[in-house]
Amino acid sequence: MIDYSKTIAFPFAIATLIFFQLPNTLAQSPPNVILIITDDQGYGDLGFHGNPHVQTPVLDKLARESLRLNQFYVSPVCAPTRASMMTGRYSLRTGVRDTYNGGAIMAPEEVTIAEMLKNAGYRTGIYGKWHLGDNYPSRPQDQGFDESLIHLAGGMGQPGDFTTYFQMDSSYFDPVLWRNGEQKAYNGYCSDIFTDGAIEFLAVDSDQPFFLYLSFNAPHTPLQVPDAYYEKYKGIDPSSGFEGDERPFAEMSEKDKEDARKVYGMVTNIDDNVGRLLAQLDEQGLSENTIVIFMTDNGPQQRRYNAGMRGLKGNVFRGGIRVPFLIRWPSVLERDREIDTALAHIDILPTLAEICEASLPEDRIIDGKSFYPLLKGESNKDFDERPLFFYWSRKYPELYNNIAWQKGRYKLVGRTGYNAPIEAFELYDIQADEFELNDLVKGHLPLAKEMKKELDHMLQELLSSPHFSEPPRIVIGTEHENPVFLNRNDAGGQRGIWTQEEVHGTWKVAIREGRYKLRFKFIQPIQGRGKMLLEANHQIYQTETIEMDGDILEMGEVYFTDMETDLIPHFEIGGKQIFPLWVEMEKH
């Protein structure tokens, strides 16, 4: 036993030890992570980026408190961006190739940020847009999220999000959403509702660190905004205020201007909601050891101020793929500093893995690299000549349409045909020509040929990925999800399948043996005599001729064997084949 009476130095020594160890303990405790992403908010839709019209005081302040990644890139459209961000892999490796056409389902074998951090002891939650699969086994709750409050498909009011689709011009208000896989009605505006859920997640009393993914569906179309926010902008001219600015500025139609007013209202609402979230962090004393990331998923969909950059959403020019990226971690990272290294969505997962001391999957290619050393002010030559691949075309990649290979200061762009000569490509020095206006290809043919060779190699590697060549299937008839709703966003078949009635459509599914009750919902009521036909491999089910007078049809006692199949339903009437909006399959 120690005789404390014989040392007066002991209390001082203990106090000194605590004093010097406490900061290190705090610094070594796992940081919380909040990842905020908005939908179709462009680089120019922030006051901090020189927009004289949009009011974003919270995000502007966050930018001043953060490290700003000035050359941060994503995919041209949303689902590919989210797949790459969640996995650290190019989206084609994950099975995600489009925003619908059945191409926005991520393979369940992929390891997400949520799964990685959950395995490291984090609790996890998503609020807002997922867009990587609406059915088992690709839902958020199947991919690492403890709590989820989401809409379906790529956007509220879209045909894939059938619980809000029929609300049409009010789909962002008082919606039916999906809470942990169950439908639930909410009151209010969608961005407010998702933020309310995120704040409730923060308020949970827990000793675990957390990963919160707040994924706003705004300002994606349909452009629906609360009146109070629209009133802030209804009198402005979004094309004014740029006199003397030498950066390119696209001419705006009257519709573009009205769209911008609505977008700015939606963005200001997001700004207020981010403010509420950050205030909750402060109130709970969590701000110092919480990493807050703010980014967007691609460029703007409509013409408006975009810092002079060429291109919009869907385009591989910088206007479609360069986005804001702010990262704040007060207890560790320097504030108000800029990093000009080219970084991308694929780098987020490996960066968080290093920061949070989580294990990266070792059985697959991780395309991204950790940029944590850059955040700490260290040099990292790994990024100097690291190439980045960009593409997007509807349904499947096309040679060589809307595709790019960026390496160092040069960027090769393809907007041509599969057999085009190298002279038909475009080459830009994005360091000297940030607006991508001066095509250098004819003067740099050897460089262009070498870059195209590298592009071809990467593209062939991605197209041979198992999850691309064997797309993930929706699994039907398990205890994890019953009934299953098959929606239009995940339907394949004819290119661009959306709200058409006379269209050939299919769902890629894996059905477990059993008897099922099926309900088919049609976009418009069907009137007249016809037959319902359902094809699943060699099993064909056809009803007798029935009299239809409505938009719902039921088939009961349908028996399926175990199978992987393309499920093909349609109603035959008067020489037409009507494809349903959604199919509900319930196993008895």
Description of the structure:
By secondary structure, this protein is of the alpha+beta class. The protein has three domains: 22-380, Alkaline Phosphatase, subunit A; 388-467, Arylsulfatase, C-terminal domain (2-Layer Sandwich); 474-587, Galactose-binding domain-like (Jelly Rolls, Sandwich). It has 14 helices and 25 strands. The chain has helices spanning 9-28, 57-64, 78-87, 91-94, 113-119, 162-165, 190-203, 227-230, 254-283, 318-321, 348-356, 372-375, 445-463, 466-469, and strands at residues 32-38, 67-73, 123-128, 147-150, 176-179, 182-185, 210-215, 290-296, 322-323, 325-328, 337-344, 388-391, 401-407, 410-415, 426-429, 474-476, 484-486, 492-493, 505-511, 514-536, 539-542, 546-560, 563-573, 576-578, 582-587. The strands form three sheets. Strands 1, 2, 3, 4, 5, 6, 7, 8, 9, 10 and 11 form an eleven-stranded mixed sheet that branches. Strands 16, 17, 18, 19, 20, 21, 22, 23, 24 and 25 form a ten-stranded mixed sheet that branches. Strand 13 and strand 14 form a beta hairpin. Helix 7 (190-203) packs parallel to helix 9. The longest helix is centred in the middle third of the chain and has 30 residues, at 254-283. The radius of gyration is 26 Å and the shape is globular.
Descriptors:
Arylsulfatase, C-terminal domain; Alkaline Phosphatase, subunit A; disordered N terminus; 14 helices; 25 strands; alpha+beta; 10-stranded mixed beta sheet; 11-stranded mixed beta sheet; 588 residues; Jelly Rolls
Q: Give the helix level as a range of percent.
A: 10-25%
Number of domains: 3
Structural class: alpha+beta
Main sheet characteristics: 11 strands, mixed
How much of the polypeptide forms β-strand, as a percent range?
Answer: 25-35%
Rg, please? 26 Å
Helix count, DSSP H or I runs of 4 or more residues: 14
